[in-house]
Write a structure and sequence with these properties.
CATH architecture of the largest domain: Orthogonal Bundle
CATH superfamily of the largest domain: N-terminal domain of the delta subunit of the F1F0-ATP synthase
Mean pLDDT: 89
Strand order of the largest sheet: 2-1-3-4
Number of strands: 4
Helix content: 55-70%
Strand content: 5-15%
Order of helices and strands: HHHHHHEHEEEH
CATH topology of the largest domain: Peroxidase, domain 1
Shape: elongated
Radius of gyration: 25 Å
Low-confidence stretches: none
Number of helices: 8
CATH class of the largest domain: Mainly Alpha
Largest sheet: 4 strands, mixed
Distance between the termini: 51 Å
């Protein structure tokens, strides 16, 4: 198993903790910065030093005050000989946080205008299906006859009456 896969597993678990309300981002960044230094890296790679010493070196180098979750993570990684993955785990957690906070732009084309209540309902449906915040842009195009066409990123979801009629026409013609 590659180190990226291993780091991703730890990062996913930490991201879940953060998502549940644990404030461990700063502490994780501190221990990752300490583990990334050459001096600490040399100690972590040396099998002669016991795991408790390695763990205490990382914790004390951060100022000695880290959350219990991060301290347990460091202890677990040191015991398993994977403390060198701390910077990679931190980078993946930061990326997950960034992606979760990002907003998607959704362009919706409808035949007739949507009232505010319908726009809100559509926005909520898109948020629940994508899991991200959605910024909605609504435009009108009477040529679609009815329904809607939704574009989110590179995806296009076509629920227009024009497309359904064209499909029915093709089906009847064959």
């Amino acid at each position: 198993m590659s180190t990226t896969q291993i780091s991703r597993r730890y990062a996913s678990a930490l991201f879940e903790l953060i998502h549940e309300g644990s404030k461990i981002e700063d502490d994780l960044a501190k221990v990752a910065a300490v583990a990334a230094t050459d001096e600490v890296g040399a100690v972590l790679d040396c099998p002669e030093y016991p795991a408790e010493l390695k763990c205490s070196i990382i914790i004390k180098a951060t100022g000695g005050k880290v959350s219990g979750e991060v301290e347990r993570l460091v202890g677990l990684l040191v015991e398993r000989g994977k403390a060198c993955l701390l910077p990679e785990i931190n980078a993946q957690v930061e990326e997950m946080i960034h992606l979760a906070a990002s907003k998607l732009d959704a362009e919706v084309t409808v035949a007739t205008s949507l009232n505010k209540a319908m726009q809100d309902k559509l926005c909520k449906a898109l948020v629940s299906s994508t899991g991200k915040q959605v910024r909605l842009t609504v435009s009108e195009d009477q040529s679609i006859l009815g329904g809607m066409v939704v574009r989110i990123g590179d995806r296009k979801i076509d629920y227009s009456l024009r497309t359904k009629l064209a499909g029915l026409r093709r089906a009847l013609a064959s």
